Amino acid sequence: MNLLALRYFLEVARYLNFSHAACNLHISQPGLSQQITLLEQQLGFKLLIRTTRSVTLTEEGEYLYKNLIHSFKNIEHVVDELQQLKMIPQKTIKIATVPSAASHLLPGLLCKMKEEFPGIEFYIKETTSLDAIEMVKEKECNIALVRTPTDTRSLVEDQLNFVEFTRHPLQLVVSPQHALASEHSLDLSKLKDESFIHFDKKQSPSLYFLLEQVCQSAGFIPKVLAVGPELLTIANLIAKGIGVTIMPSDMVSLLPPQHIKAIDLENESFYSSISAVWDSSDHLPMITQYALEQLGELCDEEYLVVK
């Protein structure tokens, strides 16, 4: 069935005038007449009664018009809506994120997106970097905000795109009663005898390898007291004087300042950053593209998509 011919018929039935219909359809009147004739032949019955003075609908034509007009109007509405919004009407974006990005980036992003797309719906999943990346791979979310992996080649191998945002220096986190708490900065070699609260190698590989590298650069292997607790648990353990840790400054800012003391590290070039990760195998929806652009602006620096 030629749907275009049906569209032509609906326009003629609307005006009952071939000249007006042809003008609206931007085709010649003879061409329109030919399309209607071919449609009637294909259907096996007349749709229009044409005389030199008028055009009227047959019973079959009137039945067809009444039952098709709303369907075609709906098609036009859907297409117009897509063209105007440049996105699907169901305005939902799903983001999996680590806690620091959820705190620092999401509030500004959500405000901007609500202003640009009234009625937008958000699905936010706070989780580890590893799980967030897996959610993108499984198409369970549009964007993952993660701690930038130490080896980004794994992302490319998994057909994922990523963009790195602002880099954050590392800080030592100790109890306010710790012997080093009065220091504003210190050399890492002073920490060789400290007991560390470490990060889980599987769930937080970036933070795990970062702490390992920092300590090894200072000439020692960290003495591990505990591994893998959540961020607030780490803060509580440190506040009670049960070990120390090293973490990026954006994570430190989430900890209650009255319970911990953050100290800068001297002569260290190590840093950590947040990256946005998304699937490179699919067409990038307009809403996801807009979110990535706004994240870049929120971080106040231009970014480069790594493919």
In a few lines, what is going on in this structure?
The protein is an alpha/beta fold.
Describe the fold and architecture.
The protein has about 300 residues and is of the alpha/beta class. The protein folds into 3 domains: about 5-85, Winged helix-like DNA-binding domain superfamily/Winged helix DNA-binding domain (Arc Repressor Mutant, subunit A, Orthogonal Bundle), CATH 1.10.10.10; about 90-165 and about 275-300, Periplasmic binding protein-like II (D-Maltodextrin-Binding Protein, domain 2); about 170-270, D-Maltodextrin-Binding Protein, domain 2. It has 12 helices and 12 strands. The protein has helices at about 5-15, 20-25, 30-45, 60-85, 100-105, 105-115, 130-135, 155, 205-215, 230-240, 250, 285-300, and strands spanning about 50, 55, 90-95, 120-125, 145, 160-175, 185, 195-200, 225, 245-250, 260-265, 270-280. Strands 3, 4, 5, 6, 7, 10, 11 and 12 form an 8-stranded mixed sheet that branches. Strands 1-2 form a two-stranded antiparallel ribbon. Strands 8-9 form a two-stranded parallel ribbon. The longest helix has 27 residues, at about 60-85. The radius of gyration is 31 Å and the shape is rod-shaped. The two termini are about 45 Å apart.
Topology, pairings included?
Layout lengths: L2 H13 L2 H8 L3 H15 L4 E3 L4 E3 L1 H27 L6 E6 L1 H6 L1 H11 L4 E6 L2 H9 L5 E5 L5 H5 L2 E15 L10 E2 L8 E4 L6 H13 L5 E5 L3 H9 L5 E4 H4 L8 E5 L5 E9 L6 H13 L9
Parallel strand pairs: 3-4, 3-5, 7-11, 8-9
Antiparallel strand pairs: 1-2, 5-12, 6-10, 6-11, 6-12
